[in-house]
Amino acid sequence: MARRESTDVSGAEPNWVDIATFVVLLLTLIAVAWYTREAVVAIKLTRQALELNYRPYIRPVPYDRSINISIGRPLQIDIHLLNLGRRPTRVSSRASVTYSYSHLDNGSPKFVDLSAKFVWPGSGADKESHVVITSDKLVDDKMRDDMNEGRGWLYVNIQVEYDEYTTRLCYEYPFITHSLVLGTPKLCSDAASNCVDEACK
């Protein structure tokens, strides 16, 4: 009677070639995924660098600290729109100016739309644009006396929008006693009143 050969493969040796091939393919797949991720990050960073180099960047800057304060007339302050970027842009802006005897965290939320301006990059009188912000209240005797005595603050809020960018600033000015001149401004304490681009959304 012939002897039958066993077909049991449970004790067979593992095929090291197949295992090595699987490991190499797995490592290759991981390397390709990692390289793809790094390439996407590099493209994003390159695009951001190009945008920073060639985008407009509008900064609203108060023109000076001397203002005309006349009884029976509104407060007015001149704001320059400086383009610190490399491309001209059309700027839409909203702003407010208000006097307050007490301290305010975020100035005045009563924004008024201002006329749109086309702002060229660079500095100089031929490249700067400016907007005039007018208060919604008239100056009375008491208000003028308080300002002259250095009491209260002047708040200037401005928001500019251009291309897909936004800048929002709130300036707080003290008054210099007996001069009707504004002191050195600082930004309002409310962080939401001062933001650039994504932080304004």
Mean pLDDT: 84
- Principal-axes geometry comes out as elongated
Distance between the termini: 90 Å
Radius of gyration: 32 Å
Looking at CATH, the homologous superfamily of the largest domain is Immunoglobulins
Number of domains: 2
Structural class comes to: alpha+beta
Largest sheet: number of strands, sense, barrel closure: 7 strands, antiparallel
Helix run count: 2
Q: Poorly predicted ranges (pLDDT <50, ≥5 residues)? A: none
Proportion in helices? 10-25%
Order of helices and strands: HEEEEEHEEEEE
- What's the number of extended β-strand segments? 10
CATH topology of the largest domain: Immunoglobulin-like
CATH architecture of the largest domain: Sandwich
The portion of residues forming beta strands comes to 35-45%
Summarize the helices and strands and which ones pair or pack.
Elements: H1 16-54, E1 58-62, E2 74-83, E3 89-100, E4 112-119, E5 129-138, H2 141-148, E6 153-162, E7 165-176, E8 181-182, E9 186-187, E10 195-196
Tell me what the structure shows.
The chain has helices spanning 16-54, 141-148; strands at residues 58-62, 74-83, 89-100, 112-119, 129-138, 153-162, 165-176, 181-182, 186-187, 195-196. The protein has 201 residues and is α+β, with helices and mostly antiparallel strands. It folds into two domains: 18-54; 58-200, Immunoglobulins (Immunoglobulin-like), CATH 2.60.40.10. β7 (165-176) and β8 form a beta hairpin.
Short structural description:
The chain is of the alpha+beta class.
Spell out the key features of this protein.
single chain, 201 residues, alpha+beta, Immunoglobulin-like, 2 domains, seven-stranded antiparallel beta sheet, three-stranded antiparallel beta sheet
